[in-house]
Amino acid sequence: MMHAMDFTPGELFAGIVVSALGTGIFLYGKKQRRAPQLVAGVLLMACPLVGGGPWTITGVGAALGAGLWLALRFGM
C-alpha cells in the first residue's frame, strides 16, 4: 500500500534548507574527493524524505552536521 507524501509548509521549508546544504556539502566533497563530505551530503539530501516533521528534519540535519564536524575535527 502506498503512503501519501503530504508535507506541511514547515516540513517543506526545513527539507529544502537541509537538502540544499546537503547538496552543497556533497558537491564540495565530490570536487575535493573527500569521503566524509560525500557521505554527509548524501545523508543530508535524503534526511527530509524520512523525517517526521520540521523539528525532526532540522534536528537530524543538525546531528549530521555535528557528526561531519566531529569527523573532520578528529582527522577523518
Structure notes:
The protein has helices spanning 9-32, 35-50, 54-73. The protein has 76 residues and is mostly helical. 79% of the residues lie in helices and 0% in strands. The N and C termini lie far apart (42 Å). It has 3 helices and no strands. The model has no long low-confidence stretch (mean pLDDT 89).
Topology at a glance:
Blueprint: H1 9-32, H2 35-50, H3 54-73
Helix pairs in contact: 1-2, 1-3, 2-3
Q: What are the salient characteristics of this protein?
A:
76 residues, mainly alpha, 79% helix
Structure summarized in a few sentences:
With 76 residues, the chain is mostly helical. The protein has 3 helices and no strands.
| Number of separate helices | 3
Radius of gyration: 13 Å
Major sheet size, sense and barrel closure: none
SSE succession: HHH
Q: Which structural category fits the helices and strands? A: mainly alpha
The best one-word shape is elongated
What is the count of β-strands? 0
Distance between the termini: 42 Å
Helix content: over 70%
Mean pLDDT: 89
Query: How much beta, percentage-wise?
Result: under 5%
Poorly predicted regions are none
